[in-house]
Structure formats: C-alpha cells, structure tokens
Amino acid sequence: MNTKLLGLLAAAALATASCSEDKKTETTVTTDAATQPMAVDTLAYRTSADELAARVATDINPADTALPTKLRPIYYSRGRAMRDIEARYTADTAGVYAATKAANDQASEAVKAAVPAPQYVTYTTKQSDYYAGPYTRAVANATETKPSLGARVGQGSGIKKLENSEDEGKVKYQNGAKIKRSDDGSLKIKRADGTKIKIDEDGKRTVKKGLL
After folding, report:
1. Which residue of 24, 68, 175, 194 sits 20 to 30 Å from the alpha carbon of 137, by its own alpha carbon?
2. Are residues 155 and 116 in the same domain?
3. Residue 104 domain boundaries
C-alpha cells in the first residue's frame, strides 16, 4: 500500500511541474510578442529620421558633418507625432489636416532654431520635398542682404563729410550725394544725379527728379 501511495504522489508531482513549465513558457512568448511591434515601430521612425536628417544636411550645409546628428531628434519627434495623428484621427479629415500642419510647422521651427539663418533660407525653399501633408510656408526675411541707404546713395564713392548733432545728422559723399536725418524721423536725400527725395515723419515720400 505504501508503494502505491508513493507512486501516486510521484505522478502528481510530475504533472504539476509540467503544467507550471507550460504556463511559464506561454507567458514568456506572450511578453515577447507584445514588445516586438513597439521595437519595430521605434526602429522604423528612427531610420526615417536618420534618412531625412542626412538629406536636409546635404541640402543646406554638406560641409557640416555634425548637422545630421543635430537634426535627427527633430524628425524623430515629427515621425512619432505623425503616428499619433494617424491613430487619433481615424475618421476626422479636418483633424488630420490641422494636426499634420501643426507637426510640420513645429519641425520647421525646430530647424530654424538649430541652424544659421542662411541655411534656414535654403531649407524653406525645399519644404515641399521634406514634408508630406500641409505646412505653413516659411518666410525667412531676416537674412535679406539689401544694401543700406548710405550704400545705395553713396554708390561706393566714400564719405566726404560727416556731421552729427543732437537735432540732425548729415552725410556728404564723394559723388555729390547727400543724406540728412532730422530728430523727428524725417529724411532728405539728394542722389548723385540730382534727384531729391523727402520722407517725412509719417513715412510720406516725395520725389523730385534732377534736371540731368
């Protein structure tokens, strides 16, 4: 009788161990399956961010080898934002449009803060190549290289005489041109060809052509 009892106990122990091992194996497989899509998703967005960062860096400053590294987080964040938009606005067309535009504009602002102004100007000319979906067309007018008033009037002839007081300032150029500024903001200009221009304190402009 003792022998039979021992046999039954041994069989029960083996069955219990087998069930525990099966449960442990199932649990492990389930965990791996749940984390795998997230890992693949993260890798996909990082790869896309790497490619776009390298492309933009080549376009705006190929000599700066550190630029792709600087731009990569910007495009990774944008990629994650686009994924969230797709999940959130499944049937809301207007919502997708507005959210996509906001994500693209946020990326542009981040690029603007990360690169010098001349490079950002180049970037703005290629926005349509970088973004899928709507975006605000950036206007980078901070880099305009319009010559100063003195350079345009003097035409490179050099300054002949310079006078400044509390009430006004006068500049005479070698080519005969003159500029006079008053403390009220008004401006008088005489060009080398004799043309006279007066701009009052309200911005009103009057032009009198020279006789030449």
Report:
1. 68
2. no
3. 40-131
Q: Residue 35 falls within a domain, yes or no?
A: no
Encoded amino acid at 117, one letter: A
Q: Which H helix or E strand runs over 139?
A: none
Residue type for 14, please?
L
Inter-CA distances, 60 with 10, 49, 55, 68, 152, Å: 75, 16, 9, 11, 30
Residues 26-67: pLDDT tens digits? 444 444 544 444 444 567 778 888 898 999 999 998 888 899
| Residue 32 identity (one-letter amino acid) | D
- Which tens digits make up the pLDDT trace of 135-162? 776 554 444 445 566 666 666 667 777 7
Please tell me the pTM assigned to this model.
0.47
Tell whether 44 and 126 lie within a shared domain.
yes
What is the residue type of 77? S
For residue 176, give the CATH number of its domain.
Answer: 3.30.1120.30
